[in-house]
Specification:
mainly alpha; Formate dehydrogenase/DMSO reductase fold; two-stranded antiparallel ribbon; globular; membrane; Cytochrome d ubiquinol oxidase subunit II; transmembrane; Cyt-d_oxidase_su2; cell membrane
Length: 332
């Protein structure tokens, strides 16, 4: 489940980040940058949502009490997130197939870009609320002890939301460097990626600093957890390596380093929260479904992975041949 969520951040998250990059595009190459984003996303954006679906289904089947608590306490941000996903998908299709001179196409592009910002922010709000300890649950019954707003209406979840949006945009800007051979667009993306990389580091420190004032549980787990600390080190090294690679225009290395940084961030958070699924009341042990459910679920997951993972590899191989060609010609 956690692995599916990490893959979704690397793939689907970067897709949403592409919309943010399009929203940030300025200057004489603005339309060309936006067309690049649409072209890069077109073959694979819908398929990447599979990983989010896998994570949600696993949570629903394997940990039904946690699923019920999260969807109850975080009903509002989850609804906004789903609205953003639907609007973004619909707007992307309408903008792609409408006439280039159509006024409707102009507005569909705006819907696509703004919904691409809304979804990562609400995704981060959900993650921040889950980790914050603000959602209290009676473990035996699974009854939520807070209302629809108290669990997420605080500064910390919104700081995590801003951090998530910055991370997604950062990944997208780095990925897009190998999607084009236009020197001007590539230089604009490089500068954007450098700025977002610095903003990501600042955002991480601000979010961590505020956690000790609002959600001490999160702060203690992130700072003192022996499981999470090695991944904080990996995150820092990968971040510096990515920025250095961007500065020296080593775009393949930058892509690998940025993806490693994202994986380390997610893994550090997951290990810091372990074994809690919903801090502090719901853990893996006290919220898991019976073994009669978990065993067939595990079998289905293994069999499904045998089909799903090679299929995704083939999908990317078929539709990203241009990217591979650009990567071979780009500085290594």
């Amino acid at each position: 489940m956690f692995g599916a969520l990490v893959i979704y951040v690397l793939t689907g998250g970067a897709d949403f980040g592409g919309g943010i990059v399009a929203l940030l595009a300025r200057g004489p190459r603005r339309e060309a940058i936006r067309e690049l984003v649409f072209h890069a996303l077109a073959p694979i954006w819908e398929a990447n949502h599979v990983w989010l679906i896998v994570a949600i289904v696993l949570l629903f089947v394997a940990f039904p009490k946690v699923f019920a608590a999260v969807t109850t306490a975080l009903h509002i941000p989850l609804t906004l997130m789903l609205i953003g996903i639907v609007l973004r998908g619909a707007a992307f299709v309408f903008a792609q197939y409408d006439e280039e001179t159509s006024r409707a196409r102009y507005w569909w592009q705006r819907v696509f870009m703004w919904s691409s910002l809304l979804t990562p922010v609400t995704f981060g709000v959900v993650v921040g609320a889950v980790a914050s300890g603000r959602i209290r649950v009676e473990p035996q019954t699974g009854l939520v002890q807070v209302g629809f707003v108290e669990g997420w209406w605080a500064l910390f979840p919104f700081l995590v939301g801003g951090f998530a949006a910055t991370l997604f945009a950062y990944l997208a800007s780095v990925y897009l460097l190998l999607e084009t051979e236009d020197v001007g667009i590539r230089e604009w993306l490089r500068k954007l990626a450098l700025g977002l990389g610095v903003a990501l580091g600042v955002g991480a420190w601000v979010t961590l600093w505020w956690a000790q004032h609002e959600t001490l549980t999160v702060y203690d787990r992130l700072v003192h957890s022996p499981l999470a600390q090695p991944f904080h080190l990996v995150t820092g090294v990968a971040a510096l390596l990515a920025l250095l690679a961007l500065w020296r225009r080593r775009y393949t290395l930058a892509r690998i380093s940025a993806a490693t940084q994202a994986v380390a961030i997610m893994t550090g958070w997951g290990l810091a929260q372990y074994p809690a699924l919903l801090v502090p009341d719901m853990t893996i042990a006290n919220s898991a479904a019976p073994d009669t459910v978990l065993r067939p679920l595990l079998i289905a997951l293994i069999l499904g992975s045998v089909v799903l993972i090679p299929s995704f590899g083939y999908l990317y191989w078929v539709f990203k041949q241009h990217t591979l060609a650009v990567r071979q010609r780009a500085p290594q």
